[in-house]
Amino acid sequence: MDTVSYPNKDVTEFIRDSVIPLRVRYDTQPLATDFSINWTPTLIILDMEGKEHHRAVGFLSPEELMPLLLLGIAKVHFDHNAFKEAFSNLEKILSDFPKSDSAPEAIYLKGVCLYKDTKNPKGLKEAYEQLQARYPENEWTKRAYPYRLL
């Protein structure tokens, strides 16, 4: 990622503006043990208390790295019940990176955010319908399958 993704201008700006990066070697102790890091690169999205909310292992292109980081940021907000902030990050994934590998999970989580924020199951059903239309074989479509009944 040092030769492709990190030097990318958009990635550099995104990281500078959106996260507090910390780079450690995969064998740095106690972090490697504390966070179960067994391979490199391993990207972990933590909240301000150091709790993990999202992780990815292996190379990511610039086009996949930014939506993955947005997804991690959205999950931090989601886990802290800040659904509007999570929703905003998920929308950014879908508008700026609609073909990324993070897009199906963003659709799923967007529906869950809507439900948790409003208690209206409509968002869950809409998420399933969007997933079924765009990604019929995706794991997130399968996870949303029960929502078709709402």
From TrEMBL:
Pfam family, one: TPR_6
SUPFAM superfamilies (alphabetical): Thioredoxin-like, TPR-like
Membrane-spanning ranges: none
Protein name: Tetratricopeptide repeat protein
Organism whose genome encodes this protein: Candidatus Brocadia sinica JPN1
Upper lineage: Bacteria, Pseudomonadati, Planctomycetota, Candidatus Brocadiia, Candidatus Brocadiales
